[in-house]
Amino acid sequence: MAETATAVPRLKAAPDADADGKDGGDRLGRALDIAGICAAVVLGVIIFDVISGGKVTRLFQRRKPPCPPGVDCPDEGPSGDG
C-alpha cells in the first residue's frame, strides 16, 4: 500500500494584520493583561490586610516620636477648640 501524505492546513494572516503579522489588538491585550495583574496584586494585598488584622496598613501609618522625659506634651487626640 502506498502511503498518502495528508495536507496540513496553513494558517493565513488576518486581513487587518500588519505587514509583520501582528494585528493592532496586541497592544490593547497586553495593556489589559498588565492592568489585570496589577488589580490582582492590589486585591491580594487588601485581602491579606483584612485577614491579618491590619498589619499592612499599620506599616504605613505615621507615628509620632515619643515625648522626651520632663517635657509637658500635648494630648494625642484632637483639641476640639473650634
* Beta-strand content: under 5%
Structural class: mainly alpha
Number of strands: 0
Q: Total number of helical segments?
A: 2
* N/C terminus separation: 102 Å
Any low-confidence stretches, pLDDT <50, length ≥5? none
Instruction: Estimate percent helicity.
Output: 40-55%
Average the pLDDT over all residues and give the rounded result: 76
* Molecular shape: rod-shaped
Would you list the SSEs in sequence order as H and E? HH
User: Biggest β-sheet: count, sense, barrel?
Assistant: none
The Rg value, from CA coordinates, equals 31 Å
Can you describe this structure?
This protein is mainly alpha-helical. It has a domain at 27-59. 40% of the residues lie in helices and 0% in strands. It is built from 2 helices and no strands. The protein has helices at 25-52, 55-59.
Features of the shown structure:
single chain, 82 residues, mainly alpha, 2 helices, 40% helix, rod-shaped
What's the SSE blueprint?
Elements: H1 25-52, H2 55-59
Briefly, what is this?
With 82 residues, this protein is mainly alpha-helical. It has helices at 25-52, 55-59.
